Amino acid sequence: MPWLSWVVSNVLLALFLALIALFVKRCLRWHAAAHILWLLVLVKLVTPPLVRVPLAASPGPLACALGVCGCEHHSGAQTIVGATWPWFLLASWSVGAGATAITAWRRSIRFRRLLTHASPAPPEWQALAARLAAELSIRRPPEVLAVPGRLPPMIVPGRPRPRLLLPMDLLDRLDDSQKSALLLHELMHLKRGDHLVRMLELAVGVAYWWLPVVGLIGRQLRGCEETCCDAAVVAHLPQARRDYARLLLDVLDFANPLPAQSVPQATAMSARDLEHRLRAILNGTHGTRRAWPAGALAVGLACAILPCELHYGVVGRPAMNATEREQSAGMTSFISCDSGLREVKSYCCPSGPGETSNQD
Q1: 156 by DSSP, 3-state: which?
Q2: Does residue 343 sit within a domain?
Q3: 158: containing domain
C-alpha cells in the first residue's frame, strides 16, 4: 500500500524536522528560522514524496507478524487481511476528517455571523492604518473594521482584501503610542502572510486529525509568529517598548483570552508565552543573530529532507530462481515415486520387509 508508506514516512520525517525546529527556537533563540522550520513541518505532512531513501529491511519473523511475508502458511490469511484493513483505515480516517471539517465549518459560520455586526473603524484608525501600511510597503492594505464582543485584534482573509478586526470596546482605552503599536503588530502579521498559514494549519489539522503532534506544531508556529511581530514593532517603535508591553497586558485582560481555535483561519493578537514576550520586549532580546550559521544549516537540512520518503522493506521467504524450482520439483517427484514403491511393496509383501515370502 503505497499511500500508507507515504503517510508513515511523512510523519517520521516531520517529527525529525520538529526536533530541529525546537533546537533552533530554544537553543539558538532564532525565532525567524524556527518559524520557517515549523512551517516546513506542516508542508512536509502534505508533500508527496519525490526522492526515495531506502532503509534496512525487517527480518522474517517481523514480516510474518505484519502479514507481508508471502509464506505459503500465511498466504490465505494475508490475502483476506490485506484486502480488508486498508478500507477499514480509510473509513476511520474519513469519519474523523469529516467530523473535524464540520467542527471548523460551524465555528466559521458563527464567526461570520459576528462580522454582520461589524462597521468601519473610526476615521483616525483608518488614517493611521493606511499610513503604517504605506510605511511597511503593503500592496493591499486591509479593510479596518470595528466589531462588538471581547475579541482580540486579528487579521482574517477576505475578498477583495484581508480584514483587520478591532474590538469596539478596546479602541477608546488606548493612547496614541499603543494605537500605533497595535496596528503595526497586526499589519506585520498581514505582511508576513500569517493569516494564510492558518489556512494551511487548518488543512493539515483536518487531514491529520489523529496525530496529536499537529496541535503542538500549530502552537509553536503561532508562538514564533508573535515573537517575530514583537521584534518588528520594537524595531519600528523603539521608544514605545513600555507602551507596547502594557498593550499586551491590556489585550490579555480584555479578551480573557480568545478560546483556542475559535477562528482557525484568523491570526489573532495573543498573549501566548506572555512572560517571555514581555522580557524580550523590555530588554530588546529577540533572537540571537550571531547563531545564524547554525540556523541556516538547519533550514538547509530541512529543505533537503522535505522531498524525501523513507522506504522500508520486509524480508520474508526469498523467492526461488529457475534452478531451485526445478530441483524442488524433482525432489517432490522423487518423494512421490518413493511413496508409491513403498505402497506396492507393502501390498506384495504383507509380511513385512524383514521376512521372506513363499512364492512358487
Answers
A1: strand
A2: yes
A3: 2-311
